[in-house]
Amino acid sequence: QLQLVESGGGLVEPGGSLRLSCAASGFPLEHYAIGWFRQAPGKEREGVSCISSSGGSTNYADSVKGRFTISSDNAKNTVYLQMNSLKPEDTAVYYCAAVFSLPGRDYVCYDAEHEYDYWGQGTQVTVFS
User: In the chain, which end has fewer C-beta atoms inside a 10 angstrom radius, N or C?
Assistant: First the structure.
């Protein structure tokens, strides 16, 4: 059974850092593109970052560029989202999602949630002042 489990969320002051983890079981992440999304109270879910199955391509929402970094560790079957210089507006439930990479498309990742087939349960990030 394919499963994604997020962890690493918590409470942090503005300017602080957190590292989110997305651990996969039941399938090798090296064959899947991974996206991170977030949903704040009363708002729609939005894309934050994504990484291709090869790890060679990444993308970031404008709101997090320069502050967040996505990376993957195939040995641990885990994708990370390092979040620095956190702001109150980063407060949200963060989700990771996966989609199988078709042959020849290991350089592609996706910003839109409808592209993804598998989702984790989410982890809460709260940035308070």
Answer: N
